[in-house]
Specification:
alpha/beta; two-stranded antiparallel sheet; 6 strands; 30% helix; four-stranded mixed β-sheet; globular
Length: 249
């Protein structure tokens, strides 16, 4: 399948470069998921049946038309979100791919107000001066990360260690599995450091750990075992973290 991310910040192929050929609705909706029209905000279309995709497009156009009159695009945003949820929601009779009889969770031994809270995200953030250079590529673009999503899925993730006092201008994000524009505009969307800092100032938590952690979550569940992540647990333990906030994307 053609990748098509040339010359576009968002990663989509310019319309003029897409061959104007007869195309089924099935092909059209699938093209948003790592295809000729890739848009990670709309890759859920591939999960929908052709009939449901057609209904989504009908409702979308209806809301766009209505917004031209009233100027409120809130319903437009809500509509996209609702269909994203619908697209990714597993069927009721779908087999469970991953299940766990228990989890490595431990009750707090002291009040939260006395706890140091750490932050671990699967958002793909890293410090500008400490690029993880996936596959040996320094300065890999978001477009290339999208193109190489299959390689990310096959490789073990790499932990990025980020000082908690890192300035916003020094943060970077790269992840081929979701639309990073929101996280670029405000890193707190997926790396909520400022929210934890505010809780610490208010006395709700004891403090924020000196380090934050992030990795590219486009990886298999089997690679997120402790024995497959050498040094991760030890690093967190060295930072004297009492509570770890896990933020998935």
């Amino acid at each position: 399948m053609a990748s098509g991310y040339r010359g576009s910040r968002r990663g989509q192929t310019p319309l003029a470069s897409i061959a104007m050929t007869d195309e089924s609705l099935e092909d059209f909706k699938n093209s948003f998921s790592y295809g000729t029209r890739t848009d990670l905000s709309f890759k859920f279309l591939k999960k929908l049946s052709a009939a449901d995709a057609g209904e989504f497009l009908r409702q979308l156009l209806e809301e766009v038309g209505a917004s031209l009159d009233h100027g409120d695009i809130t319903r437009l945003h809500d509509l996209v979100y609702e269909w994203q949820v619908r697209g990714y929601m597993p069927a009721r009779d779908a087999p469970t791919q991953w299940s766990y009889e228990d989890g490595p969770l431990t009750n707090l031994g002291k009040p939260l107000a006395d706890c140091t809270v750490g932050l671990l995200t699967s958002s793909g953030h890293f410090h500008a001066a400490d690029d993880p250079a996936p596959f040996g590529v320094v300065g890999m673009t978001q477009a290339e990360a999208i193109e190489r999503i299959g390689e990310f899925l096959r490789e073990p993730p790499e932990l990025s260690v980020i000082p908690s006092d890192t300035a916003a201008r020094e943060l970077r994000v790269r992840h081929g599995g979701y639309d990073i524009r929101g996280a670029e505009a405000d890193f707190n969307v997926a790396l909520p450091r400022d929210a934890l800092t505010a809780l610490a100032k208010a006395g709700r938590i004891g403090g924020v750990a000196d380090e934050m952690y992030s990795f590219v979550g486009a990886t298999s569940q089997g690679r997120l075992r402790r024995d497959a992540l050498p040094g991760w647990i030890e690093r967190l333990q060295q930072n004297a973290i009492d509570v770890l906030l896990l933020v998935p994307v």
